[in-house]
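Figure 3 (text version): structure tokens given as input.
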């Protein structure tokens, strides 16, 4: 059975690998948050270059007809340009299939000393775990770039500011979170701009307000989530933003009504002592 207790790193941890710690034989970096994913991948590539790994091979395993045996042969092929190689497998869907899983597990069972394997996936959830991820965890590291949730954003912003040599008060961090919610790339760009414009390590409210645009990005699904989770202020802010972007309230109603019907149905099932878990599964919630 797959090990469900695999320790996952935050992607940001890969940017701070100790200089005296060699690269692991294998890395799996996956998840839907593009910025975190890309920066983690770039960190491994940069560390590989620092360690003298100049040869990089890329295999796109997105298609079902991908030749996994060609990849397996490449693992044991001699390096042409350097003593070590970085081999990347781009696997957007996050599922290598039976053959791919066997190839990855075989690599992990006896990793070639001259190869660092980097597997990159975009889609990821608990169903993607399997024997192949267990094998990677035994010899390497797994980092998952989960989407930053609204309540997690202040901590992410604080860490990002610290990485740029800046400190900010709690009210500044909260205002940044409110303005940049839903758009991590914009948040990173604004923090980079603040690092250039701020005089000294302390970021004050005046500097922040003059530099940061209201770049929060919302959509109707997040609006529905805010409404159903009892966040009226956030829902009003999202609705105002959507209307400013040209959305009409009438166009939003079908999706909102669908969510209300779903919640009403679940409430009825629960109140009538029905099978709530079965109804949630039928509704596609899990």
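Below: residues designed for each position.
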């Amino acid at each position: 059975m797959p090990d469900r207790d695999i320790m996952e790193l935050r992607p940001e941890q890969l940017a701070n690998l100790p200089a005296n710690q060699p690269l692991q034989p294998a890395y799996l970096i996956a998840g839907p948050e593009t910025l975190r994913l890309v920066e983690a991948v770039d960190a491994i590539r940069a560390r590989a270059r620092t360690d003298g790994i100049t040869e990089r091979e890329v295999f796109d395993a997105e298609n079902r007809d991908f030749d996994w045996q060609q990849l397996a042969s490449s693992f044991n092929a001699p390096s042409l340009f350097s003593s070590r190689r970085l081999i990347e497998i781009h696997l957007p869907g996050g599922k290598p299939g039976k053959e791919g899983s066997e190839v990855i597990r075989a690599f992990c069972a006896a990793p070639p000393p001259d190869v660092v394997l980097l597997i990159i996936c975009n889609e990821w959830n608990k169903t993607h775990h399997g024997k192949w991820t267990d094998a990677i965890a035994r010899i390497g590291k797994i980092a998952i770039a989960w989407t930053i949730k609204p309540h997690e954003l202040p901590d992410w912003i604080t860490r990002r500011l610290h990485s740029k040599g800046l400190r900010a008060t709690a009210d500044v961090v909260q205002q940044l979170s409110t303005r940049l919610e839903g758009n991590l790339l914009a948040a990173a760009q604004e923090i980079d701009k603040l690092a250039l414009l701020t005089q000294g390590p302390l970021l004050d409210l005046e500097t922040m307000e003059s530099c940061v645009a209201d770049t929060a990005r919302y959509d109707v699904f997040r609006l529905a989530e805010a409404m159903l989770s009892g966040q009226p202020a956030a829902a009003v802010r999202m609705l105002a933003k959507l209307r400013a972007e040209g959305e009409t309230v009438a166009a939003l109603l079908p999706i909102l009504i669908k969510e209300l019907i779903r919640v009403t149905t679940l409430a009825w099932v629960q109140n009538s002592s029905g099978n709530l878990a079965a109804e949630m599964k039928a509704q596609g919630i899990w």
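The first strand starts at residue 26 and ends at 30.
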